[in-house]
Amino acid sequence: MTSSYQSVILVKRPADNIVPGETFAVKDEGPIPSAHDLEDGSVLFRTHYLSLDPGMRDWLNDDKSYMPPVGLGEVMRGFAGGTVQASRNDKFPVGSYVTGLVGWTEYKICQGDDLQKVEVTTSRGLVDALSAFGEPLLDAIPDRFTYTAISNTVACLVGFTSLTAYIGIIDVAKVKAGDVVVVSGAAGAVGSIAGQIAIIQGATVIGVAGSEEKCRWLKEELGFHQALNYKDPDFAKKFESATPDLIDVFYDNVGGEVLELALSRAKPFSRFAICGGISQVNTTKPVGPSNFMRIVYMRINVQGFLVFDHAKEFPRALKDLSQWVSEGKIKTKETIIRGSIEEAPNALRDVYRGVNTGKFLLEVCTPTEQAS
Ligand SMILES: NC(=O)c1ccc[n+]([C@@H]2O[C@H](COP(=O)([O-])OP(=O)(O)OC[C@H]3O[C@@H](n4cnc5c(N)ncnc54)[C@H](OP(=O)(O)O)[C@@H]3O)[C@@H](O)[C@H]2O)c1
């Protein structure tokens, strides 16, 4: 074990794409804390995994958003999973597996109330808690999310991909049997689960993703009825052919051209659940759909949502999700890269390059661990 530890801090707000060596810098934090540095109730957290989420790009802008921006010079905010190395909190004995909004740092002294204990079993590990099966700290979530009510604990929910998928499909879009549902960003963490939940509801599901391999995975492994590669030169034509009866529901993770295409194929009174807009977050000049008036002509119900606002639905959602997982109706996948904490900026940049299928994680290793 090295005697000092490192963090990654934000040093320059990116105008467009993240530039790893310019946007972020590695900071030497000095000696690793020990049990002597702990106060009553606190624990020493060691990071094993960092969650890489497209929504993190928004935190780099100096804008008013759903939560405050990360300050210049501050450790990059991020959801992490790790172990308790030293403890003065009975709830988290040494060796406990935990998750929380710890940030991009190798070690941190945390207060117990901002960590979630993970019960690791033979079938569920720490990775699962950061991926599809993460459960929020229900008690800490307000009924209604507001900018002023934000706490770091609430922000942990960015990692809870299954809940986001569930709320969007079940509570926002209200998908029912017979619906034609299109999911963009379909091979990602949220999209892959959203599509499977729509299939469970009896819908016909078309996924949109960025490679032939991802499309094959969606159809052959997850049971999507069709999957289309938006990088295919004939994508628009294929999208039209795939939706002869138009679309009842569009679950959108990417915005931009795919949203425009979906609007052009929307049924009257269709429902658009807007979960994210990955294609537009890395630019200072985001483009909206040029056919915006289709919303009027087709009387489309377009609903943006934040999973935080639906806390009251989480117990039902978690019950349904657990049942579907145990019945084998929902499959999950993770793309995990290994590297030191210095790799985190490259990894976040890669989220917007389509490197991942399913949930994207960085396994944080020391050089010795990497060599093994
Ligand atoms: N509303 C909420 O409460 C909430 C909560 C959590 C997440 N979200 C949002 O949900 C969306 C999905 O999140 P996630 O965690 O599941 O991410 P993700 O899909 O695991 O990761 C990003 C994927 O998006 C695709 N992508 C990247 N750039 C793109 C572009 N320019 N155009 C089209 N696709 C692009 C890439 O796959 P391809 O190979 O297919 O391009 C990439 O793998 C994000 O927009 C996120 O912000 C919303």
Could you characterize the architecture of this molecule?
This protein has twelve helices and 15 strands. It is an alpha/beta fold and 372 residues long. The chain has two domains: 4-131 and 333-371, Quinone Oxidoreductase, Chain A, domain 1 (Alpha-Beta Complex), CATH 3.90.180.10; 161-326, NAD(P)-binding Rossmann-like Domain (Rossmann fold, 3-Layer(aba) Sandwich), CATH 3.40.50. The strands form three sheets. Strands 3, 4, 5, 6, 7, 14 and 15 form a seven-stranded mixed beta sheet that branches. Strands 10-9-8-11-12-13 form a six-stranded parallel beta sheet, sandwiched between helices. Strand 8 (180-184), helix 5 and strand 9 form a beta-alpha-beta unit. Helix 4 crosses helix 5 (189-200) and helix 4 (161-172) crosses helix 10. It starts with a strand and ends with a helix. Bound molecules: NADP nicotinamide-adenine-dinucleotide phosphate (NAP). The site of NADP nicotinamide-adenine-dinucleotide phosphate has 30 residues, from helix 4 and helix 5. NADP nicotinamide-adenine-dinucleotide phosphate (NAP) is lined by residues 53-55, 158, 161, 164, 185, 187-191, 209-211, 214, 253-254, 275-276, 278-279, 305-307, 351-352, 354, 356, 360. Keywords: Oxidoreductase. It comes from Exophiala sideris. InterPro entries: ADH-like_C, ADH_N_2, ER, GroES-like_sf, MDR_fam, NAD(P)-bd_dom_sf.
